[in-house]
Every structure is written in C-alpha cells, then in structure tokens.
C-alpha cells in the first residue's frame, strides 16, 4: 500500500483493482480487470495461474493489455496448504502450464504485449523491492520495460 500511495499521482485516473485481503476476485472480476486495462499488476502469493482458471484464460482475447507484471511466487504456510489442496485436482500437465515461462507464453498468446514475471520463489519483501524499482523506473523515470527489466536483473 505504501508503494501504491507513493506513486499514486503518476498512475492514470482509471486505476482500479483489488488490494489486500478485501476479497478474493471471482473469475469474472479477473476477466474484467484483464480485458479493461492497459497494464495489469499481480502482487500475491503462489503462482498467478493458481488464482485464475486455465481454460478461461486461454479463451480470452486481451490485446488492450500492453503489460502484465506478475510479482507472485511467494509462499506462506497458509498459501502452501491452499495450493497443495488445489493441485491435487489438477493433472501434471495443467500444473506445468502454471509455471512462470508457460504463464508468460499463455498471456502472450491472449494478446498481452509484454510480461514481466518472477521466475523462482521469493519473499514478500523482495517482491516489494522489485515493485518499488519497477514503479520508479517505469513511472518516475519513464524508462521502457526492457530498460527496467535490465535494471532489475542487476
């Protein structure tokens, strides 16, 4: 929340979404957020694709969304239990499609222009630092996504 407040004036006036533990978005809400945005930020626990239905995502057409930032792959005891219970009902192939590279490919196939995503499990603090660097470079300094990713890799 602190980071969003810090960069609030640099956001478009049409900023909308779900923050914190307000509620768990329904599939319809995920669809609305993704199809009506030019940029989408997911900052959350476990794999982004564990929150949306795979069949639903691959059927989407979201060419207006030019950038998806996935700051996911954070694990807690509670999130691990949730994902374990969820994965029991999925095939190995389905779980494989939820990995970072496969998620980026699926999002690209739906029309997303660029995807910035974590590749391995991390902490909330590390993702907060990444979000700060992303916003600073993209919004304050006006750097391109490529330049910003290059800075994050260092």
Automatic annotation (TrEMBL):
- Swiss-Prot/TrEMBL GO biological process terms: axoneme assembly; cilium movement involved in cell motility
Coiled coil ranges (UniProt) are none
> What InterPro entries has UniProt attached to this entry?
CFAP46
- Protein's name according to its UniProt entry: CFA46 protein
């Amino acid at each position: 929340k602190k980071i969003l407040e810090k960069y609030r004036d640099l956001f478009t006036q049409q900023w909308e979404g779900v923050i914190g533990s307000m509620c768990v978005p329904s599939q319809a809400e995920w669809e609305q957020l993704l199809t009506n945005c030019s940029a989408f930020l997911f900052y959350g626990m476990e794999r982004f694709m564990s929150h949306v239905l795979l069949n639903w995502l691959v059927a989407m057409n979201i060419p207006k969304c030019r950038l998806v930032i996935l700051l996911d792959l954070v694990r807690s005891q509670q999130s691990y239990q949730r994902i374990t219970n969820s994965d029991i009902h999925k095939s190995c192939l389905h779980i494989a499609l939820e990995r970072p590279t496969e998620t980026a490919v699926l999002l690209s196939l739906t029309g997303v222009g660029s995807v910035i995503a974590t590749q391995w499990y991390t902490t909330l603090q590390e993702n907060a630092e990444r979000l700060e660097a992303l916003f600073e470079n993209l919004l304050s300094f006006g750097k391109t996504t490529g330049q910003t990713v290059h800075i994050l890799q260092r």
